[in-house]
Write a structure and sequence with these properties.
Blueprint: H1 2-12, H2 19-28, H3 30-40, E1 45-47, E2 53-54, E3 63-64, E4 69-70, H4 72-76, E5 84-90, E6 96-99, H5 100-116, E7 124-128, H6 133-144, E8 148-152, H7 157-168, E9 172-176, E10 178-181, E11 184-187, H8 189-198, E12 204-208, E13 221-222, H9 223-226, E14 241-242, E15 246-251, E16 261-265, H10 266-280, E17 288-291, H11 298-304, E18 312-317, H12 327-335, E19 339-342, H13 344-352, E20 368-371, H14 378-388, E21 393-396, E22 398-400, E23 405-409, E24 423-424, E25 430-433, E26 444-449, E27 459-460, H15 467-473, E28 483-491, E29 497-502, H16 516-523, E30 529-539, E31 542-551, H17 559-572, E32 581-585, H18 598-605, H19 623-626, H20 628-631
Parallel strand pairs: 5-18, 7-8, 7-9, 9-12, 12-13, 17-18, 17-19, 19-20, 20-21, 31-32
Antiparallel strand pairs: 1-4, 2-3, 4-14, 5-6, 10-11, 15-16, 16-27, 22-23, 23-24, 25-26, 26-28, 28-29, 30-31
Helix pairs in contact: 1-3, 2-3, 5-6, 7-8
Length: about 625
């Protein structure tokens, strides 16, 4: 970050003395910033851009780097050497290590076979795959040809996969034939058969075997035989595409309807990811990133982009508690991981399970922990500091699938304030707006972005005239040309950011807006509580807050604990935050990317239809709420 600040000062002719000088310049002169960033971050162009930004009539209609051409895979390919760049951990399988030479050879073999199948620029290629080498290789091979990549996790189930891939009709489908989770093997072939019976246009199916001994590929090609053994890395060619050509099709969570198909561009994704990984995260050659994710979450795409920094990546597929909760920390120690990406839920589990990373061998080689999926609580900051010291940087990061990146995230040059995200990302002109469109500091309000940024989607798939795209992000303030993200935040006097949850899940008792994360911060700090979810229950023209808690092992919800929870919330927050009722539940519903689904629970308790339960990681947890009218007292 400091090297870039000095470089930007020299290139711009300005004296940018600290991060906030750099940030203010990056949003006020955003064209200069993104152009200088592309140079500093070594974006490999086939043809240089005519200019950085061609203004459109509206914020969303401008064009980035017109005239520029490049190839995404070419920008990510590691050095052709014997150095290991990809380390793969998969439950039930031995650890695999792929060198730069291995990656080049396999990408060449996969790309050659895809080309023989007629794959060309603009075709959709999809993977229903475990998080492992095959997913990375297939994506790089597809994008080397200018094709569009999209992926799901194999645990999605038939409806979850069809709801997504059925909209984009891939030409080639890669799939895992099985996966192992918590010691149990799951056969994916019956799901595959249902999926291909419901999606037309799939020309080629490639199966990636798991731990099963024998699979008969009667109507699909096995991964090992699909890769062209005669293809040489020297033969690997990178198709020239435009900066704004489509790269990825990502999917919204789908808990309120059919998932939106969000199309992200080649150059914008690459430039934004390299900015975040190199400048905000500090990745570089010789370091390793391990992000706990699946192929159904945008953090997988973000993780793979780390190859473009010269760093190595560690992939993981399976349960985090096998054989115990110390397993991931031992992996980090063994592989000398520099940056570890996780979630507040995992950190809470380690806290409650009395796991000590240092006892598992983690040392100063771990420089940074990234956390996303939900707001990071002050208790998480305190726990990480107590176990890993002051030198480690704990970076809460927040953005979304919508922008395939972050609006606010960590920063190696800024102090860490417990309970806050350190600040906005370079080039991201974020503000907190009240309902009348007034920006505020120190108050809770809606997250907006007031200037264009390179990783804005290029649109939605099959969305004539961008009608759905416009409605999703630009309708909140008619006549005001800003991106409305849907997060309820506070920008603090330290210029940090506190996230209070999704604004569509914001509670509104008595007309006062309350973020659910405020309640979780208090409740989930109690040893008796393992997890919780708060929603607004509509009653007589107002809203009551209902709190559902998952009890920690060995504890029950009784009148004394209910009274204690209410007193703590009243004391630490306000009387308006206090739930009207508190109920004990067996489990809390989550999306597959680890986000609580307040809106689905809200719909369920009001007797409204909950769409796409297959988008949930644990759909059975919703049963209690669907029967809530028969349960409540």
């Amino acid at each position: 970050m400091e090297q870039f600040r000095e470089y930007a000062s020299k290139q711009s002719g300005l004296s940018l003395s600290d991060y906030w000088d750099l940030y203010n310049w990056s949003i006020e002169s955003f064209e200069d910033f993104w152009g200088i960033a592309a140079s500093f971050l070594n974006i490999k162009f086939h043809q240089e851009p005519q200019k950085v930004y061609a203004k459109g009539r509206l914020l969303r209609s401008g064009e980035w780097f017109p005239g520029a051409t490049l190839n995404f895979a070419e920008n990510l390919m590691p050095a052709f050497s014997e150095k290991v760049f990809l380390t793969a951990y998969q439950e039930g399988m031995p650890v695999r290590y792929l060198s730069g030479q291995d990656i080049w050879k396999q990408v060449a073999g996969c790309a050659a076979s895809l080309k023989k199948k007629g794959v060309k620029k603009g075709d959709r290629i999809a993977g229903v795959l475990k998080n492992g080498p095959e997913a990375v290789i297939a994506m790089l091979a597809a994008t080397s040809l200018g094709a569009i990549w999209s992926s799901c996790s194999p645990d999605f189930g038939v409806n979850g996969i069809v709801d997504r891939l059925g909209q984009i009709k891939p030409k080639v489908l890669f799939f895992s034939t099985s996966y192992v989770y918590s010691g149990k093997q799951f056969n994916c072939i019956p799901v595959l058969e249902e999926v291909i019976s419901q999606i037309s246009g799939i020309d080629t199916i490639v199966g990636v075997k798991g731990t099963e001994q024998k699979v008969d590929p009667s109507y699909w090609k096995d991964w090992e035989t699909f890769l062209d053994p005669s293809a040489s890395p020297d033969d690997l060619k990178f198709e020239t595409v435009s900066f704004s050509d489509p790269l990825y099709i990502m999917f919204s969570s789908g808990t309120t309807g059919v998932p939106k198909c969000i199309v992200h561009g080649v150059g914008g994704t690459l430039l934004q990811h390299k900015k975040e990984l190199i400048l905000h995260t500090g990745l570089s050659e010789g370091k390793k990133l391990f992000y706990f994710t699946t192929c159904g979450w945008m953090m997988w795409n973000w993780m793979v982009s780390a190859l473009g920094t010269g760093a190595g990546i560690v992939t993981f597929d399976g349960a985090v508690n096998q054989p115990d909760l110390g397993a991931l920390w031992r992996l980090i120690a063994k592989e000398k991981v520099s940056v570890f990406g996780t979630s507040p839920k995992f950190l809470s589990a380690c806290m409650n399970g009395q796991i000590s990373p240092s006892d598992e061998g983690v040392d100063q080689k771990l420089e940074t922990i990234l956390s996303t999926g939900s707001p990071l609580l002050p208790e998480h900051f305190a726990w990480v500091k107590s176990h890993l010291g002051d030198e480690l940087q704990l970076s809460s990061i927040c953005g979304g699938t919508d922008i395939i990146s972050c609006f606010m995230l960590g920063n190696p040059t800024l102090p860490i304030h417990q309970g806050q995200i350190q600040g906005p990302g370079l080039g991201m002109a974020i503000e907190a707006w009240q309902e009348d469109g007034t920006p505020v500091v120190g108050k809770k309000a809606e997250l907006v972005c007031t200037k264009p940024f390179v990783s804005m989607p290029i649109g939605f798939w099959n969305d004539p005239n961008d009608a759905k795209y416009h409605s999703a992000y630009f309708d909140a303030w008619p006549g005001r040309d800003v991106w409305h993200h849907g997060d309820f935040i506070e920008i603090t006097d330290k210029r940090g950011v506190i996230v209070y949850g999704r604004s569509d899940a914001t509670l509104n008792p008595g007309g006062v807006r309350i973020g659910t994360a405020e309640i979780y911060r208090q409740v989930e700090n109690l040893v008796e509580i393992d997890d919780s979810i708060a929603i607004g229950h509509r009653i007589e023209g107002d809203t009551d807050i209902l709190l559902f808690v998952k009890m920690a092992e060995g504890h029950t919800l009784d009148d004394l604990l209910i009274k204690n929870i209410k007193n703590i919330i009243k004391r630490e927050l306000t009387p308006r935050h206090v739930p009207a009722k508190i109920y004990s539940v067996i489990d809390i519903p989550y999306t597959r990317s680890g986000k609580k689904v307040e809106m689905a629970v809200t719909k369920a308790i009001h007797g409204e239809e909950v769409m796409n339960k297959s988008a949930l990681a644990n759909p059975e947890s919703l049963d209690y709420f669907l029967n809530f009218s028969d349960i409540k007292d």
